[in-house]
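Assemble and predict.
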Amino acid sequence: VPSPFDLDFAAADVLFEEAFGVPVEILREGESATPATAEVVMREQAVVPAHDDLEQSHQTRDYLIAVAGYRFGGGPVPPLAGDRIRETINGAVYEFELMRDENRPAAEWADPAGTRWLIRTKKVT
Amino acid sequence: MPNLIIDPADAIAAELNDYTFTPPLEFERTYADWSIALENASTLRGDVVPVQDPECELETRGSLIYRPRYDIVLRKKFAPADLESVAGHNERRVKKTAVDPLVNLLIDVNTRLAARLLANDQDAVWEVPQIVAVVVHKHLKQWHQYTGIIRLTYAISQDLPA
């Protein structure tokens, strides 16, 4: 049974999504793109070692997306590493791929009630 | 004036670029002083990088022997079509059929250089190959990217000034 706090947070999530949400498309190979609303909660540019001194730069972008809004094939589905989020930023279209990081999965519940996914991505186009 | 460390690296890149590998790719000699962005790694690329600490010792009373090492690094970020879902798992993974040709390519690169004098630098004698990684599992798992690494050691003798 959700606690009163959980219900309050769930109600606030809707307001946050309205206020801070951006339109995106969710992409999965073999499925039609799904429009959704996502909150960008973290952006980070990192340079990581590829081998010895050889490096790569990665642009990380984490999103919050409602569990009910992450849909393929007519119903909600769990996010999978390898899915992509397409977002228009300053008029240019970019894609961000769901990827796990060192110790954390590509997606996990963002709240105790499991109403939103915290999704970890890296810029790939 | 010949450069003991850089000339072999250029010769390795030239030697590899003269050959048509499958899948095809371009090799570039770099200093590893720049970082490739993940979004620019979708094209298969090869880097030839001099390792920063070459060995050097007295060979004879009148000559030194240098043993410069070179990392040959292949990288490619896989496309969505190269990934597959696995029942019961919450991650898509790279298809083995997408990775296999790149593993074979790395071995082809190693074989291409094995026990050969470089056409553009006959003074550098191929000595030791080390396949550091036929595939870096962590990159495949986290970034859906292929990374393969060979480290080659050459021997170059240089006379000491009289």
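The two ends of chain A are 42 Å apart (CA to CA).
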